[in-house]
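Anyone opening a protein record will find just a pair of labelled lines. A complete record is shown below as an example:
=====
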Amino acid sequence: MIDLHTHSNASDGTDTPTELVKNAHAAGITTLAITDHDTTSGWREAISALPTGMNLVLGSEISCQTEDGISVHMLGLLFDESNQALREELAKTRENRVTRMGRMVARLNEAGIEITLEEVLAQLSDGATLGRPHLADALIARGTMKTRDEVFTALLHNKSKYYVSHYSPTPVNAIKLIKSAGGVAVIAHAYASHRGRIITAEMFSDLVNAGLDGIEVDHRDHSETERASLLRIAYEYDLAITGASDYHGNGKLNQLGENSTRPEQWEKLEARADQRRVVRI
């Protein structure tokens, strides 16, 4: 079973990279991608925890924003971590997440919801990428609400008045950075409309021209109609078709392997990287 989209506590998951790998192995995952938001900081630990015979795909879920403000997430897989341009862009995005969080905290405070930036930062593990789930965890720790889902539904969804976007590259630039680092680019949950505004089918032309390699079709946030539409686009442009859990540990309902990628589609995707970088012990 192949799961190409998961998170550890190097970003907004609740499992350590070690726990993520062990839980995936127990769930029958044979090829696992670790794709924390805008960071590669969990890679080394995940590699050290890898059991014999399991394949580890190193990657990152890169936050992007179109020129008209639509949030897009791009999975970069199998890229060279030492590529300076990509490293600098990820660092810039992470730095801007802190400024953005301060503005979100201020908006909540103005509405009478007590929380501090220090409380939010206390929810991070060392070196983790800051995100809205950490704000949710801080509110839960205060007793304001009980679960991340409850906090996101009430306060932190993309259409909320408390939501603030942060600096991020355009999807086209993110793809170009991933490709220049020798990796492959897969757009994640592109039609998950309940998260906010989504890209249109017409926008895929520019992404493909930039080097897009695949589309995450099978994701719990896609309806059957949305999956069918994305499949048509994948066939039209000869893109790899992936499915994944978008697992976050206890942070979301998503379960490892609930959606997976067919072996032939993974082979097609991996072949587009400039060299083989799958880790196997």
Observations:
- The mean pLDDT is 96.
- Strands lie at 2-3, 31-34, 55-65, 71-77, 184-188, 214-218, 240-243, 279-280.
- The longest helix spans residues 84-110.
- The CA atoms of residues 191 and 198 lie 6 Å apart.
